[in-house]
Design goal:
This protein is an all-alpha fold and 257 residues long. The protein has one domain. 68% of the residues lie in helices and 2% in strands. It has a two-stranded antiparallel ribbon with strand order 1-2. A hairpin with a 2-residue loop joins strand 1 and strand 2. Helix 3 crosses helix 5. 41% of the residues are buried. About 8% of the residues have low confidence.
Length: 257
């Protein structure tokens, strides 16, 4: 199913404002001119985000924030190379499995972000406010890592962004080191494993198990879908669950010794 093809609220861009609102406006204007968007009403902004927002709108916000941030990441070293564009297209086709309509939308959003005056951190901060979920912010951060490491090399400008990103997404700084070890193919040690679960070495076995079970519930596909993660992105949620499972097993094995 298309992420954006079913239509998004005609007023959502104006309601949200900022970089994500501008990105939605750019996509919506383009799609209406192509004749494949369907407008509908949207309620006003609430204190905790957007009141009356539906699943389609939540997914659209995720989609716009992600591909705008990928554009900023690709341009971090001054220009978007053909290899970087190919890698993002490969990600869209094979790992996210986007259909042709979504790839057109992604291209419009991506190109708009290349030319706008917002920074990647502007997008991150606004997405954090709208998403209201650390799990959704972790998914965006994981995907930024995936693109940065897609060519098996990490440019210093990309590394600088990845280091700074947790503060803007509202994540603990340890996420940088945890994801870095994971994407380098290194085993996350016991100290980082506690951080993955949000525990400390002083936590009891019961507390560790409780934290683990809570994360398993938060990363359940139904829970993430309800928060706006499209089903086609579930591969990355599964990778996060693998990290959580590995962290729990690492801690428990260490405690048995």
């Amino acid at each position: 199913m298309s992420l954006l093809g079913a239509g998004i609220g005609a007023g959502i861009g104006a309601v949200i404002g900022g970089p994500i609102g501008a990105g939605i406006g750019a996509w919506l204007g383009h799609s209406i001119s192509k004749g494949y968007a369907h407008a509908k009403a949207l309620g006003p902004m609430g204190a905790g985000g957007i009141s009356g927002i539906g699943m389609q709108e939540a997914q659209s916000i995720f989609f716009v924030a992600l591909f705008s941030m990928l554009a900023k990441m690709a341009k971090a070293d001054g220009r978007v190379t053909s290899s970087e564009a190919d890698l993002i297209n490969h990600l869209a086709r094979t790992q996210i499995k986007m259909d042709a309509e979504d790839r057109k939308a992604a291209s419009t959003i991506f190109n708009n972000a290349l030319e706008d005056d917002y920074s990647i951190y502007d997008y991150a901060k606004q997405y954090r406010q709208i998403a209201g979920s650390p799990q959704m912010c972790e998914m965006v951060y994981r995907l930024l890592f995936a693109v940065a490491y897609a060519d098996k090399e990490l440019h210093p400008a990309e590394d600088e962004i990845l280091k700074a990103m947790p503060a803007h997404l509202g994540l603990d700084p340890s996420h940088y080191h945890i994801f870095m070890e994971e994407f380098k193919g290194q085993h996350v040690d016991v100290g980082e494993s506690y951080k993955v679960l949000g525990c400390t070495p002083e936590s009891s076995d019961a507390e560790v198990k409780r934290a683990y079970r809570k994360l398993c519930m938060e990363y359940h596909p139904d829970k993430l879908t309800s928060k706006g993660l499209p089903e086609s992105f579930m591969k990355f949620a599964e990778q996060q669950m693998h990290l959580i499972n590995d962290a729990y097993q690492t801690i428990m094995d260490k405690r048995k010794k």
